[in-house]
């Protein structure tokens, strides 16, 4: 195992073990040493984000996005950066990235929820609620949700201004 791989795995393990500060102390210098390594950049972003240092996470995320990642990390990057953009006030960037993410990963219901949050932050409460209703209806195993599925979908369409032709 290379030194890069060992240090990256140690940083990930520290984050997963609930030691994000130690992970950051390892991953930030690793990212500086490997500026063209998307995986290292992504994990440096993730630990900064995890620590609530969203503004510091953005350049790492953006570098990883530019370099490209394999799946499933690309999916995680899209969600993470999209959410982080919203948290740092870059609402339009958040919506654009999360919309692409929802189109690319239609089964990622968390991505849809983060898009709903971004829409809400953009003053689009009706569309945010419609997105949230989509997730609820698509993922719930509740008998009461199932019982009212048709009504909930109708209200979702109403929120979106869709009028059903009779």
What does this structure look like?
Helix content is 77%, strand content 0%. The chain is an all-alpha fold. It has ten helices and no strands. The mean pLDDT is 96.
Short description:
The chain has 166 residues and is mainly alpha-helical. Helix content is 77%, strand content 0%. 32% of the residues are buried.
Features:
166 residues; 10 helices; mainly alpha
**Shape type:** elongated
- On the 0 to 100 scale, the average pLDDT is 96
H-E string: HHHHHHHHHH
Structural class by helix and strand composition? mainly alpha
Please give the largest β-sheet. Answer: none
What is the terminal separation in angstroms? Answer: 65 Å
Give a count of the beta strands, DSSP E runs of length 2 or more.
Answer: 0
Total of helices:
10
Helix content bin: over 70%
- Give start-end ranges of low-pLDDT stretches: none
Q: DSSP strand (E) fraction?
A: under 5%
Layout of helices and strands, plus pairs?
Blueprint: H1 3-16, H2 20-33, H3 38-50, H4 54-67, H5 73-87, H6 91-104, H7 109-121, H8 125-139, H9 143-147, H10 149-159
Helix pairs in contact: 1-2, 2-3, 3-4, 3-5, 4-5, 5-6, 5-7, 6-7, 7-8, 8-10
């Amino acid at each position: 195992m290379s030194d890069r791989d060992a240090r990256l795995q140690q940083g990930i393990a520290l984050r997963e073990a609930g030691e994000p500060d130690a992970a950051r102390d390892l991953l930030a210098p690793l990212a500086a040493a490997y500026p063209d390594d998307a995986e290292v950049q992504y994990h440096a972003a993730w630990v900064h984000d995890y620590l609530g240092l969203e503004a510091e996470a953005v350049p790492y995320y953006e570098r990883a996005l530019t370099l490209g990642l394999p799946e499933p990390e690309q999916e995680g990057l899209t969600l993470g950066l999209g959410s982080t953009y919203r948290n740092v006030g870059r609402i339009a960037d958040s919506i654009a990235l999360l919309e692409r993410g929802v189109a690319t990963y239609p089964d990622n219901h968390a991505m849809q929820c983060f898009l709903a949050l971004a829409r809400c932050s953009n003053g689009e409460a009706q569309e945010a609620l419609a997105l949230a209703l989509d997730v609820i209806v698509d993922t719930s195993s509740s008998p009461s949700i199932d019982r009212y599925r048709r009504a909930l979908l109708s209200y979702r369409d109403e929120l979106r201004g869709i009028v059903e032709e009779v």
